[in-house]
Automatic annotation (TrEMBL):
Gene Ontology biological process terms from the UniProt entry: peptide metabolic process; protein processing involved in protein targeting to mitochondrion
Organism, scientific name: Musca domestica (House fly)
Keywords: Hydrolase, Metal-binding, Metalloprotease, Mitochondrion, Protease, Transit peptide, Zinc
Protein name: Peptidase family M3
Annotated ranges, domain Peptidase M3A/M3B catalytic: 236-679
GO molecular function, one term: metalloendopeptidase activity
Pfam families per the UniProt record, alphabetical: Peptidase_M3 (PF01432)
UniProt-annotated location(s): Mitochondrion
This protein's record includes keyword Cytoplasm: no
Cofactor: how bound: Binds 1 zinc ion.
Main subcellular location of this protein, as a coarse class: mitochondrion
Lipid biosynthesis found in the keyword field: no
PANTHER family the UniProt entry points to: MITOCHONDRIAL INTERMEDIATE PEPTIDASE, PROTEASE M3 THIMET OLIGOPEPTIDASE-RELATED
């Protein structure tokens, strides 16, 4: 079939952008129910083709091997007769540990057999012990510190120096550079922070219990009961009953003394940790080597964005308030925090006629994978090839393996697709690095291996797995992470692919969401799974427009969250007596809707644990991705020249070049708070104009 051949020559240059009338082998594979192949002849290859992992006991062998290799590398690093660059030794040390730790962490959470999961967990614990040993190895630290500050005994590059400083900063996280008394305090604080975080996250999802008698009778049936108590386990944002939404918001977010105590202690411990390690605040420590470089720049950025967003968000809220008055019949009704998700969804359904179920038949999993393949071919000359696995290579029979192949460079790496829900599997969409790419001394390249995990329903013999538009966005997002790993060609695995600053790691994945929201891209693969007819132009435009509805108010909410996180992890003298008092003050400065009395939203905000002082990262990543899209891809999302430039100047470097420098060089403008804010405001204005035009046309 012509469409399976590589496009060659001028006439076929754009063939992969056109809608096709039949499924490619890739689409067919992902649209078919996976099945377990019976092996009669071939030997077991082991998980991820690692011969040690033909059975679960192999994890103990991996642990022993890496323990011995670690000791060899330590001796090489501290030897007076060292021949290699210090950074090369440290990267090999990191690579050896990460190969076992990352693999074990994934198998621990993903393998359906408990004996594998337990062996992997034991390996994780062992690697943690090795790392703790390294973190107290003064001689090793001094050897690295000497090189980082005074230069190596062999010639080094700017990348070598940058990566050496990253290793040194990682080393200093344990306080090894401090006096022993202070170092021990750092260890205790880190342990206490871990425990407080775990307890806070557990409490953040515990349902609120409230006497039934205190809830209006008209809405009691909206909530489950337990004896004389009703249980509220969420915000009921999609309920069409305004009283139920209000009750859920006020009950679920009712202040918890225990959660307030945990959060207060967590923030105090983090501040103490930052101070002991020589930083002004915990936020200064967390943002070291980040894209924005300091909390001061984050504040400038969100303040600038707030000034620009306020009138635009207020306009969004006025539309929602009018909708509320019309629906309730109360001309004096006021919009509240519990209303915004509901009226955003209502606007999508009514004004834009964008119902998720309407689009389902056009987004088969195979069709979406075909769309990704089309896009990768256009931008990078890369194909995603479904590859048969060896016996014992995967952890379940519904896994797909993709070989990522460049038209000239050949095999770039492997992506394992763990897409379907199953008992015991984490209910999250995420990307796992199993093996990072790196350049070996002989010039060969260690190929990256990653897993993309989703939780889709299994395909049936009656039809393939169908994705909602939000699921399509998630697929493109996670594949953005995977392609970052595949296309990086770094000297060192410590900085390969997604191993870069937190506020840059999301840029490639968020950028992929822009492609998934562009009608020209979606048009290439959105076709009915039965008739193969393409999605109508009207549906296509409505779908893409609906993704940007009320984007100013949604962005303002993210700014508010980011500001709150920064202030919590900043100067304690600028905070209120309680975390709720701080929230009230921040909300009045950064969000248009008022604080709701007797609520404590922050006590449900579990991201404060995993993204402490870094919640702004998504906002910065979104901003940079928007800027890249507007500069290089908005005019033509299939532009090969732009794709190659993006690959060579951004993706190829991973974290090997400071991310601020990397982005500034690529965009040819400095990343000032004003430039960053303006890129996002420009996007919001363009999208609002498109939506207004569409609503006028339909009216």
């Amino acid at each position: 079939m012509t469409l399976l051949k590589k496009p060659t020559g001028v006439l076929l240059k754009h063939c992969w952008r056109k809608s096709v009338t039949t499924w490619t082998p890739l689409a067919t594979a992902f649209n078919s129910p996976p099945y377990k192949k019976i092996n009669f002849t071939r030997n077991e290859a082991g998980l991820f083709c690692m011969p040690e992992l033909k059975n679960h006991e192999g994890f103990y062998l991996l642990k022993d091997n890496v323990t011995n290799h670690t000791e060899e590398l330590i001796q090489e690093a501290i030897s007076p007769n060292r021949k290699r660059k210090m950074v090369q030794i440290f990267d090999e040390l990191s690579d050896s540990l990460c190969k076992v730790a990352d693999l074990s962490e994934f198998i621990r959470v993903a393998h359906p057999q408990s004996k594998y999961a337990q062996a992997a967990e034991d390996a994780c614990i062992s690697i943690s012990g090795i790392v703790e040993h390294l973190n107290t190895h003064k001689t090793l630290f001094m050897a690295l510190s000497n090189v980082a500050h005074n230069g190596d005994i062999v010639p080094t590059t700017d990348v070598d120096k940058h990566v050496s400083k990253l290793f040194l900063f990682d080393f200093e996280q344990s306080g090894i550079h401090l006096k022993e008394e202070e170092r021990e305090k750092v260890v205790r604080l880190n342990d206490y922070i871990l425990q407080l975080g775990q307890k806070f996250m557990h409490g953040a999802v515990v349902p609120t219990s409230f006497p039934r008698s205190q809830v209006p009778e008209s809405i009691r049936n909206y909530f489950p009961s337990e004896g004389d108590q009703i249980l509220v386990s969420g915000l009921y944002t999609n309920s069409n009953n305004g009283m139920a939404r209000e009750a859920a918001y006020k009950l679920y977010l009712y202040p918890s003394e225990r959660q307030e105590e945990l959060l207060t202690d967590l923030l105090k411990c983090r501040h103490a940790l930052g101070k002991i390690c020589g930083f002004q605040t915990y936020a200064h420590r967390a943002l070291n080597s980040s894209t924005v470089e300091s909390p001061e720049m984050v504040k400038e950025f969100i303040d600038e964005l707030t000034r620009e967003l306020r009138p635009r968000a207020d306009a969004d809220f006025r539309i929602m308030e009018e909708m509320k008055r019309k629906e309730s019949g109360n001309k004096n009704a006021k919009l509240a925090a519990w209303d915004t998700p509901y009226f955003t969804s209502l606007m999508k359904r009514n004004a834009l006629n964008a119902n998720a179920n309407e689009f389902l038949p056009y987004f088969s999993l195979g069709g979406c994978m075909q769309g990704l393949d089309n896009l990768m071919r256009s931008l990078y000359g890369i194909s995603l090839q479904n590859t048969e696995m060896e016996p014992g290579e995967s952890w379940h029979n519904d896994i797909y393996k993709l070989s990522v192949v460049h038209e000239k460079e050949g095999l770039l790496g492997y992506i394992y697709c763990d897409f379907f829900e199953r008992n015991g599997k984490p209910n999250q969409d995420c990307h796992f690095t199993i093996q990072g790419g790196k350049r070996w001394s002989d010039g060969s390249y260690q190929l990256p291996i990653v897993v993309v995990m989703l939780n889709l329903s299994q395909p049936r013999w009656t039809g393939p797995t169908l994705l909602t538009p939000s699921r399509v966005d998630n697929l493109f997002h996670e594949m953005g992470h995977a392609m970052h790993s595949m296309l990086a060609r770094t000297e060192y695995q410590h900085v390969t692919g997604t191993r870069c600053s937190t506020d840059f790691a999301e840029v490639p994945s968020v950028l992929m969401e822009y492609f998934a929201s562009d009608p020209r891209v979606v048009r290439t693969f959105a076709k009915h799974f039965q008739t193969h007819k393409p999605m109508s132009e009207d549906m296509l435009q409505r779908l893409c427009a609906s993704k940007n509805l009320f984007s100013a108010s949604e962005t303002q909410l993210q700014v508010f969250y980011s500001a709150l996180d920064q202030i919590y992890h900043g100067d304690p003298s600028k905070q209120g007596a309680t975390t709720t008092e701080t929230l009230k003050n921040v909300q009045s400065d950064y969000y248009s809707l008022p604080y709701v009395e007797n609520t404590a939203w922050q006590l449900r905000f579990s991201h404060l644990v995993g993204y402490g002082a870094k919640y702004y990262s998504y906002l910065i990543s979104k901003t940079i991705a928007s800027w890249i899209w507007q500069t290089y891809f908005e005019e033509n999302p299939f532009n090969r020249e732009s794709g190659e430039k993006y690959r060579q100047e951004v993706l190829a470097h991973g974290g090997g070049v400071p991310s601020r420098q990397l982005v500034a060089n690529f965009l040819k403008r400095d990343l000032t708070p004003q430039n960053l804010a303006q890129s996002l405001i420009t996007e919001i204005d363009i999208n609002n104009d498109k939506i207004k035009h569409m609503l006028k046309v339909e009216a």
